[in-house]
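User: Could you check the structure of this?
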Amino acid sequence: MITEGQILAKLDDYKLGYYCQFVELGHVYSYLIDSRLNIFKGDNDSWAIAAERLGYNPRGSGITLDICFFGNCLTNLEHYNGQDTNYYTVSPIEWNDFNDTVDGEVLKPDAKFWTIRGIQIELSHKKQDYLNAGIELNEYEPDEISLEEVGRLLITKHRNLFRATDEELYKSIPNSLKKILVIDEWYHRDFTEIVQPTMSDEQLRSTYDFNKNLAGGEYPLNYETFASMFRQQEKLTSKYNQNQYQDNRPSSYETWQLIAKVIATGDTTLYKPTLKPNTHWKNWPDSGSL
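Assistant: Sure, the predicted structure tokens are below.
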């Protein structure tokens, strides 16, 4: 029988390769709109978690649903640069609709609807509608509505249209597993480690020479200064990662400890959190800040 400790160890060591991530609600490139956790359990100690994060990325990808997969039986994973990744992205909004109704990072004044999963949904330009949903418009320009604000209003009215479908959830989870628990809000800490490859002195020297040659031999730093700066950055990165692991790894706090208990026993009634949920977008003001 699988133990809670084994599940937590797998969550702490979530990386399948270079291009993997834990659930990052405060992602600085994407404004948080909504999130959800889906817990799966199967026979022979198999288990999986699919974490949904809906957000608006102003760098061209629109409002997207990112699904991160964790577990001991994942399959059919996405690949990038020849390595497995533990997430993939879904676009619930029909792309042409979205493009036709936006001007940069704001909604056009004459925008009327978006088609979301094949259903035409009316867009609102009424400030009161947003206020009623707890959304105070930033209005950098008069009557301007940011796209993350539009998404945050729509999710309150059409939540299921933005959620992952079973087909999307089972994309990298075997169909033999059963969804046993869905969590719409929880206490969360972002666990973001910086991946920095280890470089020998010889590799560092080769990197310096390569960069110097690219610059036509005119490089602003000598090798000793370059190497010293790199080694200092290595120490800072290592310290940052140590602090992240100590303070924010899944096994370090209640949410994931309870989820591990539910998976190990199959008893969903054991998920009785005492920590106040903080996954609402208002609690992540730095999301999308870059």
